């Protein structure tokens, strides 16, 4: 057992959300926060840390080491080291599922497919290409088009009985398709499920998958119905960590702990 | 405290200055020829039949090199839309669209780089070889119309496996058929002796360039791919001339000194990478620093090796040119390309391959038909694909490139 008072911080400053995870020497999550990244990454990272420390009922001085990750990884004032989000997601997922896995992270701005062997070594990774299709940004854009709050999408998709399949992989074209379906009298919930389906299809196209597939990221955290759909599409069980949106930050915190031990 | 950016050391080559002077002399000679009218000027594609043109006394100008300058000066992205607006799609070669865009707007980076030069040298004839792509033919056809000058060329094969006598016979015939129309423009007869001498000089230049690139096999490597993209200037525009040979003799000497003294282009060469595809011209410096900052040296590439013409033989100039310009990597099928890359991996002791998926250059992009996966499966050498473009900076995300490259190096580190 390590010193229970020592904490390690992982900060994942994503394009959409900033996540902070605090862990103790036994890799237990003691505090965390998720906030919109906004335009001032440093301030957001500070705010998330404060929230996390409050949750852990701890002072900042107890943090022995901090590793930051994500697009804003270089903007975290209290970070000791940076790692890419690819590395941190891999590290975080392998902690929860220590076997050969394929990780699917659906983030606000990009998707990642990361393959690990049974020792947790990265075999390969891929990030989505230039457009927003298949990412959280795609769902945000569509929720605005449909004038439906983002947080309502999951429940709508879940009650769909006749999903509308959208053919395009371009966000702009998909928007046109959605409007066309509305004009043709299709039900909103069936269109929303079609949007979810479209996100998963973009993932499937990115790479091949090993037996065990883990989904992470804010999109699945807030839209758990997508996991049910993914199970059907992949025809297998899909593994999901307890806090899928925090996986990168959690992995960064483990890196922080390992840096001190090394 | 936030994590500070690591300071990066990249050792410049002293002879880069000599090569810079070569390029200046080359452009001033062209400019002088236009102003004095003493030489006819041929525009030629970068792996076009320059030796024939030199054999007829033409000064040879290469629009692709001009386009690369539009890229490195980051003028291209602003000029491309002018070409798009007259019907040249943003999806086609951004060398073409940047160059035509520059022409439409009367701009050239030559004016800034070489004071006194106001424009590109006006052509008397345009000569292409489609061994690279069809775009060069369309590109030159545009100028043939604008300048009202003849357009001649070679239509090459694509996806060639073994280069057979039937391939070379066809290309040879097309090369020979150029002579008559070129004689009319040149106003003089084709001189076989001068032509053979140009082929001899070209071969010597090619051999030296090959030796220059081969120094990259040393550990640590004395040069990088990013150096190579500018050092190759004389191999592109000066092949068939003594001056290019002089440049490479000097360069080779400096590189061999570095090899003997074990001086690398970067300090701490932890990983040796291979670059497959075009450079991102507007990000040469940024990419060079990005890799160097991670202890990775991109030491070799298909691109820089594309100006090695081993088959050239002054005793059989037409046939050997036909072979040399058909043996090129870009002309070949995937089996040949994969074998070629695997040989490079062995020779340069490569740890990883970076494929550049250049949006507007499918012919110089080799990650679209499963090649990275096949090579990785066979060799175990991991690879990374980065999305970008040679000239059109609208097609790339610096942040995504950075994250991808950093994650790739992390992967190499973790698996070492």
What is the succession of H and E elements of chain A? EEEHEEHEEEHHHHEHHEH
Portion of residues within helices of chain B: 40-55%
Low-confidence blocks of residues of chain A: none
Give the rounded overall mean pLDDT of chain B. Answer: 96
- Rounded radius of gyration of chain B (Å): 21 Å
The amount of beta strand of chain B, in percent, is: 5-15%
Average pLDDT of chain A works out at: 92
Fraction of residues of chain A in helices? 40-55%
Parts with pLDDT < 50 across at least 5 consecutive residues of chain B:
none
Q: Termini separation of chain B (Å)?
A: 30 Å
Number of helices of chain B: 17
CATH architecture of the largest domain in chain A: 2-Layer Sandwich
- The total tally of domains of chain B equals 1
Structural class of chain B: alpha/beta
Can you write the helix and strand succession of chain B as a string? Answer: HEHEHHHHEHEHHHHHEHEHHEHEH
Fold and architecture overview:
Chain A is an alpha/beta fold. Helix content of chain A is 40%, strand content 21%. Chain A has two domains: 7-88 and 245-261, ATPase, nucleotide binding domain (Nucleotidyltransferase, domain 5), CATH 3.30.420.40; 99-240, ATPase, nucleotide binding domain (Nucleotidyltransferase, domain 5, 2-Layer Sandwich), CATH 3.30.420. Chain A has helices spanning 41-56, 85-96, 136-146, 153-158, 171-183, 188-204, 218-222, 225-234, 247-261, and strands spanning 7-13, 17-24, 29-36, 63-69, 81-82, 101-106, 111-116, 122-127, 213-216, 238-239. In chain A, the strands form two sheets. Chain A has a five-stranded mixed sheet. A five-stranded mixed sheet of chain A has the order 8-7-6-9-10. The radius of gyration of chain A is 19 Å and the shape is globular. The two termini of chain A are 17 Å apart. The mean pLDDT of chain A is 92. Chain B is α/β, with parallel strands linked by helices and 416 residues long. Chain B has one domain (16-414). In chain B, 50% of the residues lie in helices and 10% in strands. Chain B has helices at 16-36, 50-54, 63-72, 76-85, 94-105, 110-113, 135-147, 165-186, 192-214, 225-231, 233-237, 242-260, 284-293, 317-324, 334-348, 371-379, 398-414; strands at 41-44, 59-61, 125-129, 151-154, 271-276, 296-301, 352-358, 383-388. In chain B, the strands form two sheets. A four-stranded parallel sheet of chain B has the order 2-1-3-4, sandwiched between helices. Chain A binds chain B through residues 42, 68, 71, 73-87, 110, 121-127, 129-130, and chain B through 1-3, 5, 376, 382, 385, 387, 395, 397, 399-400, 403-404, 406-408, 410-411, 414-415.
């Amino acid at each position: 057992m390590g010193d229970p008072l020592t904490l390690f911080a992982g900060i994942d400053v994503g394009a959409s959300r900033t996540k902070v995870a605090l862990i103790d020497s036994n890799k237990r999550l003691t505090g965390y926060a998720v906030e919109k990244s906004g335009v001032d990454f440093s301030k957001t990272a500070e705010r998330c840390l404060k929230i996390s420390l409050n949750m852990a009922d701890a002072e900042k001085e107890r943090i022995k080491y901090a590793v930051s990750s994500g697009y804003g990884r270089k903007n975290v004032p209290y970070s000791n080291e940076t790692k890419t989000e690819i590395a941190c997601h891999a590290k975080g997922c392998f902690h929860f599922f220590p076997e050969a896995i394929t990780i699917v992270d659906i983030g606000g701005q990009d998707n990642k497919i990361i393959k690990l062997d049974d020792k947790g070594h990265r075999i390969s990774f891929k990030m989505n290409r230039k457009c927003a299709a298949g990412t959280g940004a795609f769902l945000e854009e569509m929720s605005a088009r449909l004038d439906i709050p983002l947080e309502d999408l999951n429940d709508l998709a879940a009650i769909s009985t006749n999903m509308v399949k959208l053919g395009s992989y371009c966000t702009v074209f998909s928007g046109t398709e959605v409007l066309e379906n509305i004009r043709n009298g299709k039900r909103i919930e069936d269109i929303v499920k079609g949007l979810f389906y479209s996100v998963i299809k973009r993932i499937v196209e990115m790479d091949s998958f090993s037996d065990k597939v883990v989904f992470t990221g804010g999109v699945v955290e807030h839209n758990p119905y997508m996991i049910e759909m993914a199970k059907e599409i992949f025809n297998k069980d899909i593994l999901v960590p307890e806090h899928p949106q925090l996986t990168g930050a959690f992995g960064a915190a483990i890196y922080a702990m390992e840096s001190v031990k090394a | 405290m936030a994590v500070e950016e690591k300071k990066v050391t990249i050792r410049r080559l002293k002879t880069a200055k000599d090569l810079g002077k070569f390029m200046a002399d080359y452009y001033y000679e062209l400019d002088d020829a236009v102003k004095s009218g003493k030489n006819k000027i041929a525009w030629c594609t970068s792996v076009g039949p320059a030796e024939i043109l030199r054999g007829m006394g033409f000064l040879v100008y290469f629009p692709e090199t001009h386009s690369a300058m539009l890229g490195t000066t980051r003028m291209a992205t602003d000029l491309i839309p002018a070409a798009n607006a007259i019907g040249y799609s943003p999806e086609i070669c951004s060398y073409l669209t940047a160059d035509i865009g520059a022409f439409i707007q009367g701009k050239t980076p030559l004016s800034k780089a070489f004071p006194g030069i106001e424009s590109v040298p006006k052509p008397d004839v345009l000569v292409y070889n489609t061994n690279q792509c069809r775009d060069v033919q369309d590109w030159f056809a545009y100028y043939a119309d604008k300048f009202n000058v003849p357009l001649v060329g070679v239509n090459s094969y694509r996806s060639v496996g073994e280069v057979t006598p039937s391939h070379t016979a066809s290309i040879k015939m097309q090369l020979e058929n150029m002579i008559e129309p070129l004689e009319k423009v040149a106003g003089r007869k084709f001189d076989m002796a001068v032509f053979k001498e140009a082929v001899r000089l070209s071969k010597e230049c090619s051999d030296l360039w090959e030796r220059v690139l081969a120094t990259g096999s040393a550990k640590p490597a004395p040069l990088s791919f990013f150096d190579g993209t500018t050092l190759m200037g004389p191999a592109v525009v000066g092949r068939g001339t003594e001056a290019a040979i002089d440049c490479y003799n000097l360069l080779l000497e400096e590189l061999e000194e570095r090899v003997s003294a074990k001086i690398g282009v970067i300090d701490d060469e932890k990983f040796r990478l291979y670059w497959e595809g075009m450079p991102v011209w507007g990000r040469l410096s940024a990419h060079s620093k990005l890799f160097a900052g991670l202890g990775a040296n991109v030491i070799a590439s298909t691109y820089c090796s594309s100006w090695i013409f081993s088959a050239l033989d002054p005793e059989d100039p037409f046939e050997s040119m036909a072979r040399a310009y058909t043996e090129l990597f870009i002309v070949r099928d995937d089996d040949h390309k994969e074998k070629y890359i695997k040989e490079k991996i062995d020779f340069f002791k490569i740890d990883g391959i970076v494929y550049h998926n250049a949006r507007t250059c499918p012919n110089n992009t080799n990650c679209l038909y499963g090649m990275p996966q096949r090579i990785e499966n066979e060799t175990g050498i991991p690879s990374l694909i980065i999305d970008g473009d040679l000239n059109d900076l609208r097609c790339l995300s610096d942040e995504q490139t950075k994250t991808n490259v950093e994650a790739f190096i992390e992967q190499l580190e973790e698996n070492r």
